[in-house]
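This part of the workshop introduces the protein records we will be handling. A record pairs a protein's sequence with a compact description of its fold. As an example, a complete record with its sequence and its structure tokens follows.

_____
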Amino acid sequence: MKTLWLKIAIALLFITVTFTAKAEFGQWCVADPQIPDNVIQAALDWACQIGGADCSKIQPDQPCFLPNTVKDHASVVFNDYYQRYKHKGGTCDFHSAAVITQRDPSNGSCHFEYIQ
């Protein structure tokens, strides 16, 4: 009986470590929900026009167009910029319009890339 409990404990520990480790290491950059849309829009415009982010996924008929909100579109673009440039000094700030999350914000057909 003691051996059975030991095996169960080890299995539960393995499951806990596996799922916890997966969540702890991912970092995505998303729009801060507390920031006004006009500030987010200005940061989104910069990222698309000057910053070098790929904004094609938020265009109509593309995987991240819906939901069609400034914050949702900005989150896709901010994360693209952050993943693309974080190893070259790029940050997830956008004049304080963005925050880091450890929860994968991907949803439906919209995949948020994560690069280690």
About this structure: Residues 2-25 form the longest helix (24 residues). The longest strand covers residues 28-31.
